[in-house]
């Protein structure tokens, strides 16, 4: 039985999150949608280079943004992460975005890069060493599907 890319859940994050704002807008919702991609690599210790804990191997992994979202970075907490100035700055910005969104329904605030709404499936905030809006950080879906044709044969 061939592998069904849609049944696998592979596109869950890529498609659902990209097009949720466009879907809501098309169906008359007045609610705002803001999408993001977390692209910051959490730091690792020098002795972890070349191991499975190397940031170059882990990349920006699922839930790695939570330390930043809740501004819970502390010196030696957790002890396995040698936080740098860029990490503390990112934590300040992300926690501000989330607090603003909770208070007002809009993540934007004084001193923060503008986070545009995701109403057409292409506006996405790239949260990393710098925060910036990007247009469609993934390949267009037709290109993805074209590249996947026959890959499981």
List the helices and strands and how they pair.
Blueprint: H1 12-26, E1 36-38, H2 55-58, H3 66-69, H4 85-104, E2 123-127, E3 131-135, H5 141-148
Parallel strand pairs: 1-2
Antiparallel strand pairs: 2-3
Explain what the structure shows.
The chain has 153 residues and is of the alpha+beta class. It is built from 5 helices and 3 strands. It has a 3-stranded mixed sheet with strand order 1-2-3, with no helix packed on it. Strand 2 and strand 3 form a beta hairpin. Residues 1-12 have low confidence and may be disordered.
Distance separating the two termini: 10 Å
Compute the number of helices. Answer: 5
Unreliable segments (pLDDT under 50, ≥5 consecutive)?
1-12
Q: Quick one: biggest sheet? A: 3 strands, mixed
Which of globular, elongated, flat, extended, rod-shaped describes the shape?
Answer: elongated
Q: Can you give the helix content as a percent range?
A: 25-40%
Kindly estimate the percentage of residues that lie in beta strands according to DSSP. Answer: 5-15%
Features of this protein?
elongated; disordered N terminus; 153 residues; alpha+beta
Quick rundown:
Helix content is 33%, strand content 8%. The protein is elongated, with a radius of gyration of 18 Å.
């Amino acid at each position: 039985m061939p592998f069904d890319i849609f049944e696998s859940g592979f596109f869950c994050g890529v498609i659902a999150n990209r097009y949720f704002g466009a879907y809501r807008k098309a169906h008359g919702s007045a609610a705002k949608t803001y999408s993001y991609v977390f692209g910051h690599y959490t730091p690792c210790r020098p002795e972890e280079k070349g191991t499975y804990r190397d940031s170059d191997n882990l990349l920006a992994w699922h839930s790695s943004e939570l330390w930043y979202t809740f501004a819970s970075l502390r010196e030696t907490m957790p002890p396995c992460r040698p936080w740098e100035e860029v990490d503390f700055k990112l934590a300040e910005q992300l926690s501000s975005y989330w607090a603003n969104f909770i208070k007002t329904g809009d993540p934007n605030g004084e001193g923060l890069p503008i986070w545009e709404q995701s109403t057409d499936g292409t506006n996405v905030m790239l949260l990393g060493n710098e925060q910036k809006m990007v247009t469609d950080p993934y390949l267009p879906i037709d290109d993805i599907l074209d590249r996947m044709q026959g890959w499981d044969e």
